[in-house]
Design a protein that fits this description.
The protein is about 50% helix and about 15% strand. By secondary structure, it is an alpha+beta fold. Monomer. Binds 30S ribosomal subunits, but not 50S ribosomal subunits or 70S ribosomes.
Length: about 150
C-alpha cells in the first residue's frame, strides 16, 4: 500500500478560492461597496487571502496605502465582517461562504528587513570576495582578500 504524502503548503483549491476572494474583496473596497467612513478615506490593498483546508475560514491580509492607520482600518473591516461575508458569498460561487478575518499584511515589512540585511556590511563583505580559482586553495584566497 502506498504511503500518503503530506502536503506542506496550501492545495490548488485553497489557492484558487483564496485568489477569487481576494479579487472580490479588492473590488468591493475599490468601488466603495462597503459603506464605512474609515474605509472610504483609505486606499486599501489586499495582497493575500489564505484559506483553511476546509475552506471555511478566510484570513484576509490587508494594508492601507502607505501603511498608515492600520488599526482603525482593521476595526472598520471587522465591524463590516457580516456584510463582507455576504458579498463574498454572492460574488464567489462556493457551497459555503467562509468566515472572514482580517490581519495586517507584514510581507512589506519583512521584505524591507531582508533588504536591510542584504545591504549590511557583513553581507557585502562576503559578496565582494573574489571568486576562488580552481588552482587556488582556500588559505591562499583568504590571504589575498586580507590584502584588500
Amino acid at each position: 500500500m502506498a504511503k500518503a504524502v503530506k502536503s506542506t503548503g496550501p492545495s490548488q483549491r485553497q489557492l484558487r478560492v483564496g485568489e477569487l476572494i481576494r479579487h472580490a474583496l479588492a473590488e468591493m473596497l475599490a468601488r466603495g461597496d462597503i459603506h464605512d467612513d474609515v474605509l472610504a478615506k483609505h486606499v486599501i490593498t489586499v495582497p493575500e487571502v489564505r484559506l483553511s483546508p476546509d475552506l471555511k475560514l478566510a484570513t484576509c491580509y490587508i494594508m492601507p496605502l502607505g501603511g498608515q492607520d492600520i488599526a482603525p482600518v482593521l476595526k472598520a473591516l471587522d465591524a463590516n465582517k457580516r456584510h463582507i461575508r455576504g458579498e463574498i458569498a454572492h460574488r464567489v460561487n462556493l457551497k459555503y461562504a467562509p468566515d472572514v478575518r482580517f490581519r495586517q499584511d507584514e510581507s512589506f515589512d519583512e521584505a524591507a528587513r531582508i533588504d536591510a540585511l542584504l545591504d549590511s556590511d557583513a553581507v557585502r563583505r562576503d559578496t565582494d570576495r573574489k571568486p576562488l580559482r580552481i588552482d587556488q586553495d582556500f588559505d591562499e584566497q583568504d590571504k589575498t582578500h586580507d590584502d584588500d
